[in-house]
Amino acid sequence: MLADVKPPFIPEGASGMTILVEWPPGDPGTPPHRHSGPCFGYVIEGAVRFELEGEPERVVKAGETFWEPGGDVIHYQDGNALSDAPTKFVVTMLCEPGQPMLTFVDEEELKQRAPRRAPRPTA
């Protein structure tokens, strides 16, 4: 068993989509975004810098899993945590019918929701 989670909701009539993501060394990943349904991932190689709204940033290493609830929650980071090696992971997303799999969050909304973001790591 790699993960056992109960998502808070699954959109009615959801479709599933599985993608392979490959980031070169140091790639920042996808800008802040959200998904219409829950997502479940597995890191094949490397390490993913992962941050969801309200949770501290963390690094998910090869052989580990991650998930996000989807819906209104902002996914701030999913980039390569390694500056000297590529990272590869697989994600299965349950998408709400008629909605995009991924929606970017604009700067204005990021400012409005800033208090919901966990404190940033200090250097």
From TrEMBL:
It comes from the Bacteria. InterPro entries: Cupin_2, RmlC-like_jellyroll, RmlC_Cupin_sf. Pfam families: Cupin_2 (PF07883). Residues 20-90 form the Cupin type-2 domain. This is Cupin domain-containing protein. It comes from Streptomyces albidocamelliae. The lineage of its organism: Bacteria, Bacillati, Actinomycetota, Actinomycetes, Kitasatosporales.
